[in-house]
Design a protein that fits this description.
- This protein has 401 residues and is mostly helical.
- 60% of the residues lie in helices and 5% in strands.
- The chain contains 19 helices and five strands.
- Strands 2-1-3-5-4 form a five-stranded mixed β-sheet, covered by helices on one side.
Length: 401
């Protein structure tokens, strides 16, 4: 009887240990799924074990690289960018020895050197090997933007849109941004979710063809910048890599120089997305005016509250934040973008209350409150901070409450 008890205990312990082992799961962009650094670290270990079983496993190599990258980027550690690049570079070197000439190696070789067109041949080869692999379109589109392959960029974005894979909610958010802008407006934005959703509206849906979308992250990529300058008809000004350390104290200063050049020489209306914050355009803050989901650059004062009010009441399509009926695999980004309506419309909410516009105050309050209540990607404390943002109980209607 004692032997049976020990055997059962041992079996239960072994099963528990197996349960604690991290199972290898597909690692996708944080734009779609949000995890903490510990999860990515465990995934890196799990996929490394898969590689040891079979060093020709392309899926394992890609997931190992991506998990390692996200783990290092999100750890909050004091690791320098040089240390991170060294670690990732070592994985690419191992990959080249194990799976040379494969789709995965060519793709990841360029991803590691992203933005450096000296390695563009690797991505071009990857695209030629799997041109219809929708799951790779984020990497394809980023490369096609930088390299200014506008024809293939348009074709790829159209196929991506038609596949139905991309988030309808993110496209709706970008629709609202772009629809509130003046004709031929330029919008500076950043991040996969913001940039790609706008490109899909243009090339897939055929909307906002007059608008120009500029990715801030690419402003130090001379091929990208020079292509934009020719397209917009402004003087050529780009910074070569060899000039960066010679003429500017750091890349931030160089970045601001290119941004300022665009603003100075274009006659088009200039806007900035509010989905990100960057110290690199703080030098413009005295000339930026909130118009709902975007900032507009203007040297002159104007009634931007009137524009914000018009956008909410007449322009923006808001039903999607109340309810959607299509599964969305970009949940993490959808939630954070939706929450952005709260700070963007806080001043309008206060305006409605102070001016006694009960109908629009109630309508906007209910929309914002519903967004906050629906989010499931934030902590209780973060959710409460957003609720506090729309709590205007200390203010009264000027026309009576």
């Amino acid at each position: 009887m004692r032997t049976l008890t020990v055997t059962i205990f041992t079996l239960c312990w072994l099963l528990a240990q197996l349960g604690l082992a991290q199972q290898a799961e597909k690692v996708v962009s944080p734009v779609k799924e949000r995890h903490d650094s510990d999860w990515y670290e465990k995934q890196a270990d799990a996929w490394n074990k898969e590689i040891k079983k079979n060093r020709k496993n392309e899926e394992a190599w890609e997931n190992y690289y991506r998990a390692t990258r996200y783990s290092l980027e999100m750890s909050g550690s004091d690791k320098s960018s040089t240390e991170i690049n060294t670690k990732l570079g070592d994985i690419i070197a191992q990959m080249e020895r194990a799976i040379p000439n494969t789709f995965t190696f060519n793709l990841m070789k360029y991803v590691y050197h992203a933005g450096d067109l000296a390695y563009g041949g690797y991505m071009a080869k990857a695209i030629s090997m799997r041109p219809d692999d929708v799951s790779r379109y984020p990497d394809y589109v980023a490369y096609l933007m930088i390299s200014r392959n506008d024809s293939l960029l348009s074709k790829t974005c159209r196929k991506w849109y038609e596949s139905g894979e991309y988030s309808p909610s993110l496209m709706n958010y970008s629709y609202n941004e772009l629809s509130g802008m003046e004709d031929k407006g330029i919008i500076f934005t950043n991040g996969d979710a913001s940039v790609f959703s706008k490109l899909l509206l243009q090339h897939g849906k055929g909307l906002f063809k007059d608008k120009k979308i500029i990715c801030l992250s690419f402003l130090l990529c001379d091929t990208y910048v020079e292509g934009l300058e020719k397209e917009l008809g402004i003087p050529l000004f780009s910074i070569k890599k060899e000039e960066l350390n010679k003429d500017y104290k750091d890349w931030h200063e160089a970045y601001r120089a290119v941004l300022n050049h665009f603003i100075k020489h274009t006659e088009r209306p200039v806007y900035f997305s509010t989905t990100f914050r960057s110290a690199d355009y703080d030098f413009l803050k005295d000339s930026l005016y909130a118009e709902g989901l975007v900032f507009r650059y203007s040297k002159e004062l104007y009634d931007n509250m009137a524009v914000t009010k018009r956008n909410f009441e007449e322009v923006y399509l808001m039903d999607y934040v109340r309810e959607t009926f299509i599964p969305d695999s970009y949940g993490a980004s959808v939630s954070s973008f939706a929450l952005n309506y709260v700070p963007c419309f806080h001043s309008l909410l206060a305006f409605y209350k102070q001016s006694g516009d009960r109908n629009n105050y109630t309508k906007l309050y209910n929309i914002l409150h519903g967004i906050i209540e629906k989010t499931d990607f934030e902590s209780d404390s973060v959710r409460q901070s957003y609720l506090d943002c729309i709590d205007l109980k200390d203010e009264t209607y000027t026309n009576g409450d």
